[in-house]
């Protein structure tokens, strides 16, 4: 699970800065729904794999969530960059400070999810943890 998370977050390192330049040169508002559709396309294939009889335990883990490898990672980066840029363009100055504080809190709490996942994995097992993760997201 740690390798999956690390490779999913690698998208931020690899395309974070180019995504910012790309989003700044385009209209930001249309970029957000397009990247959301790309993020939804890959997890939507999980029920299809189940229906065909090819669903394994690794399939949902590799195809769902925004911190997994594949399309959701890069799509999440572009969508996040577009959202932040769009918000900064339309918010008044005081709201920009609120936004920065909110992002600090969110990213400060994010590592706790990995810790909770590890504890849950020890308690109910990896298979159960993957299904709880799918159910919760």
What does this structure look like?
The chain is mainly α. It has one domain. It is 82% helix and 0% strand. It contains 7 helices and no strands. The protein has helices spanning 2-24, 28-41, 45-52, 58-63, 72-90, 93-124, 126-136. The longest helix has 32 residues, at 93-124. The two termini are 16 Å apart. Residues 65-69 have low confidence and may be disordered.
Secondary structure layout:
Layout: H1 2-24, H2 28-41, H3 45-52, H4 58-63, H5 72-90, H6 93-124, H7 126-136
The gist of it:
The chain has helices at residues 2-24, 28-41, 45-52, 58-63, 72-90, 93-124, 126-136.
Offer a few descriptive terms:
137 residues; 7 helices; 0% strand
Whole-angstrom Rg: 17 Å
Largest sheet report: none
The rounded distance between the terminal residues' Cα atoms is 16 Å
C-alpha geometry: globular
**How many β-strands, per DSSP?**
0
β content, as a range?
Answer: under 5%
